[in-house]
Write a structure and sequence with these properties.
- By secondary structure, the chain is an alpha/beta fold.
- It is about 35% helix and about 10% strand.
- The protein contains 17 helices and 15 strands.
- Helix 6 runs parallel beside helix 9.
- The longest helix has 22 residues.
- The protein is globular, with a radius of gyration of 21 Å.
- The two termini are about 10 Å apart.
- Bound molecules: flavin mononucleotide and iron/sulfur cluster (SF4).
- Flavin mononucleotide binds next to helix 14 and helix 16.
């Protein structure tokens, strides 16, 4: 059912920690792995951590994950409510944003993305309350629970009106992405006055989020969306492009606006700490119905590569964290302490952003063992954590570790490589993994995410997202039938 790469060993077939360590060594992947999962207060993952006035009760965070299942006017649907409920039941004490919520209709990533405005405020408040009630029911109290809302403008990847039509708003003309996504840079270019309006929309949204009781908002700067794209707007003229100061004006102005109008609200930033150019399937190595492995797609563009953030302009498939460090210094100066580090973009280099053995329908076979992608993010986060001990840093890309996720998570947190371990896909298939780890140190192996990528393939084809293979909710659904038919075709 899932076209797969046979080149790399499936984690599910590795039956002991020793074998897992041996396989890591064979692949020359350097990751710390604890011998056993520790439960209760012995676990480094059980220790609370403070961030300003907030105390986060343990070291598990739930990453934001959209379901492409809101109503057309941007309110939660029953599917959205169920997902947030499951986030609440997870046992994780930091809920990083729930999912991306657009600050304006034209910045929605899909016509069913949640939208924050006066009309929708109440339903978003109810969504938060659902999560909190679920958490209380499971944990007995809400002590140490911190809940944020991720605010977004989708920029180049906006699809507000039709799931199959991009209506992009770009910060600058990108020679590779414009071509790949058929973007008319002239009509899609965001003018400075429009960017100022979007800044106001972020601040208005944050004021609403504070009223609704959220502990913090994430001013999203990752995955190729607008905030992230502005960080690499080297070629843009005017006050939002060129110098580092100009490229960070968007962030700085939003932070100042929030401080002014919602002073009690904490601010976080989810950041793609490094990026890479777009990848594509190698056409020469496609087989039958199988995509070829990913290769970098530079389309004849030569160095210096001027269209990325956190990459080496002379060799853009290598990271360079110099500006990332500068950006984190800026966040610290602005009093932003909550940072969630991710990488790349799901639209043009998914193996960097969410390592998987099975590619999504618009992806490619993994060009490297996905463990290399996991380690790349874990090492970058550790390097940045070392440089910024005052920041509270959430790490990403742990789901691919599957049954060894807790062993690695524990070891990384114990060594101070990250403050919190964020979970994305794993909580779609196995929402209460943090609870099981912390209370019994055992796992329900049947629920482990095996990175089949259906939760990405479905929305790429206009269906709601979710864990089709493992979550019984989708078993007999129309969406499951459509996904199967689509894959067959
Ligand atoms: C279905 C799906 C929806 C996602 N939606 C968001 C989102 O709304 N905001 C965001 O910052 N990241 C989003 N992501 C990325 C995840 O937060 C996370 O970075 C990624 O899945 C890698 O972590 P993992 O290895 O634990 O899955 C999404 C990922 C998936 C699979
Ligand atoms: S569909 Fe399920 S198993 Fe597949 S990647 Fe998504 S969460 Fe994991």
């Amino acid at each position: 059912m899932h076209p797969m790469s046979i080149a790399y060993r499936r984690i599910g077939t590795i039956s002991s920690v020793e074998d897992f360590r041996a396989y890591l060594a064979e692949q020359q992947v350097d990751l710390p792995v604890d011998d056993a999962i520790l439960a209760g207060s012995d676990s480094p993952l059980a220790a609370p951590i403070t961030c300003g006035d907030l105390t986060i009760g343990n070291r598990f965070a739930i990453h934001p994950m959209e379901g492409w299942d809101g109503t057309s006017d941007g309110k939660p649907s029953p599917g959205t409510v169920r997902r947030w409920q499951r986030f609440g039941l997870s046992g994780a004490k930091l809920i990083w944003g729930g999912e991306a919520v657009a600050v304006a209709h034209d910045g929605r990533a899909n016509p069913r993305q949640l939208l924050i405005n006066d009309d929708n405020a109440r339903s978003l408040g109810d969504l938060r309350q659902t999560l909190i009630d679920a958490h209380r029911e499971q944990a007995g109290s809400t002590d140490g629970l911190v809940v944020g809302l991720q605010l977004t403008h989708s920029g180049r990847f906006s699809r507000p009106n039709r799931k199959d039509r991009l209506e992009p708003h770009i910060a600058y003309s990108h020679p590779l992405l414009d071509r790949r996504f058929h973007t008319d840079a002239g009509s899609a270019m965001l003018h400075d006055d429009h960017l100022h309006r979007i800044i106001d929309q972020f601040v208005d949204a944050a004021v609403l989020a504070e009223d609704l009781g959220f502990d913090f908002v994430d001013v999203k700067h990752c995955h190729g969306y607008l905030g992230h794209e502005l960080l690499s707007a080297h070629t843009r003229s005017g006050v939002f492009g060129g110098s580092f100061e100009n490229r960070t004006r968007f962030l700085r102005t939003i932070v100042t606006g929030i401080r002014d109008r919602a002073p009690r609200l904490a601010i976080g930033v989810r950041l793609s700490a490094f990026d890479m150019p777009p990848f594509k399937p190698d056409p020469d190595r496609a087989e039958d119905h199988r995509l070829g492995p990913g290769i970098v797609d530079l389309q004849g563009v030569s160095a210096p590569y001027a269209w990325g953030f956190g990459l080496d302009t002379a060799n853009p498939v290598a990271m360079d964290l110099t500006e990332t460090r500068r950006f984190l210094t800026l966040l610290q100066e602005e009093g932003v302490r909550l940072v969630n580090l991710t990488a790349g973009s799901p639209y043009y280099n998914p193996h960097i952003q969410r390592p998987a053995l099975y590619p999504p329908s618009d992806g490619y076979q993994p060009p490297e063992d996905p463990l290399v992608g996991v380690a790349r993010q874990i090492h970058a986060a550790a390097e940045l954590k070392r440089a910024f001990p005052e920041l509270v840093i959430v790490g990403t890309a742990y789901s691919y570790l599957q049954q060894y996720l807790p062993h690695v998570a524990q070891a990384v947190v114990r060594r101070g490589g990250v403050d919190l371990v964020g979970l994305g896909r794993m909580v779609l298939s196995y929402p209460d993994l943090p609870h099981d780890v912390l209370t019994s140190g055992t796992l329900k192996t049947k629920l482990l995410c095996r990175t089949f990528s259906d939760c990405t393939t479905a929305p790429r084809n206009g269906l709601v997202s979710g864990c089709y293979p493992l979550d019984p909710y989708y078993k007999k659904s129309d969406e499951m039938k459509q996904l199967k038919a689509m894959k067959k075709a």
